[in-house]
Write a structure and sequence with these properties.
The chain is of the alpha+beta class and 243 residues long. The chain has two domains: 77 residues, 3-Layer(aba) Sandwich (Glutaredoxin); 166 residues, Glutathione S-transferase Yfyf (Class Pi), Chain A, domain 2 (Up-down Bundle). It is built from ten helices and four strands, in the order βαβββααααααααα. The radius of gyration is 18 Å and the shape is globular. One of its GO terms (molecular function) is transferase activity.
């Protein structure tokens, strides 16, 4: 049995971490049975979630988890794609994970109102002094990570501009299709859905969310994916953009 270690529903999403969502959706795409358990990054082999335990073999990081699943179980999440399309899917995935995902994280952690009502609440179960120290530490670590990858070195309007370029690119690539690469969902749709849902959730108020709502095809795409893979999760977008 595959055990998926992740977070929990929060922020108006079925899963807090987009990278856990990516792996969970890929497990669902593959039709592989799994059990989901809660974990925190310090408990993870690489200090981040997700990771899996597959009958005693522990694999960390969503990209390496996919590689493990496809190799062990003989599945192909890009079935039907040719060599050029597979290359394009990889480039799209890297743009989402290495740029857009960090812009989304900046909106959660570095906009004070979002941090206070979101990630800061993770430590409410602790005594006040300890909770305050943990919040401060998490905020500092996230700020350092954002600076290390480059996003945190820019002004807020510049960060939003960078994210907007990626959102526009995704909208153009999706066009009028139901999925990014084929008539059916492929591997890259898992991370595209996860990060876009994290941007569109009404829980967080960000300039990038406002911009993304202006792309009806992306809003409808997230709604379709949510209905397909998390049918029990309540998800409503404004009718004017979700149609």
């Amino acid at each position: 049995m595959i055990i998926l270690y992740g977070s929990k529903p929060s922020f108006g999403l079925p899963e807090t971490s987009p990278y856990v969502t990516k792996t969970e959706v890929q497990l669902l795409m593959a039709g592989l049975p799994y059990e989901k358990r809660a974990a925190i990054p310090p408990d993870a082999p690489k200090g981040q979630i997700p990771f899996i335990d597959d009958d005693g073999t522990v694999v960390a990081d969503s990209t390496f988890i996919r590689e493990w699943l496809e190799t062990k179980y003989g599945i192909d999440l890009d079935e039907g794609l040719n060599v050029a399309e597979r290359a394009q899917a990889w480039v799209i995935e890297r743009m989402i994970e290495n740029q857009l995902g960090w812009v989304s994280a900046w909106g959660r952690f570095m906009i004070p109102e979002n941090f206070e009502k979101g990630p800061a609440r993770w430590f409410d179960f602790l005594p006040d002094d300890e909770a305050a120290a943990r919040r401060e530490q998490m905020h500092a670590v996230t700020a350092a990570n954002l600076r290390a990858v480059g996003i945190g070195r820019h002004a807020p309007n510049e960060i939003t501009w960078l994210g907007a370029r990626s959102i526009a690119a995704l909208s153009t690539l999706l066009g009028g299709k139901r999925h990014l690469m084929a008539d059916h969902p492929t591997g890259v749709d898992a991370i595209a859905f996860a990060v876009l849902a994290g941007i569109l959730t009404p829980f967080f108020d960000t300039p990038l969310r406002d911009l993304t709502l202006g792309y009806p095809n992306l809003v409808a795409y997230v709604s379709r994916m949510m209905a397909r893979y998390y049918p029990q999760h309540p998800w409503e977008m404004p009718l004017s953009v979700a149609a």
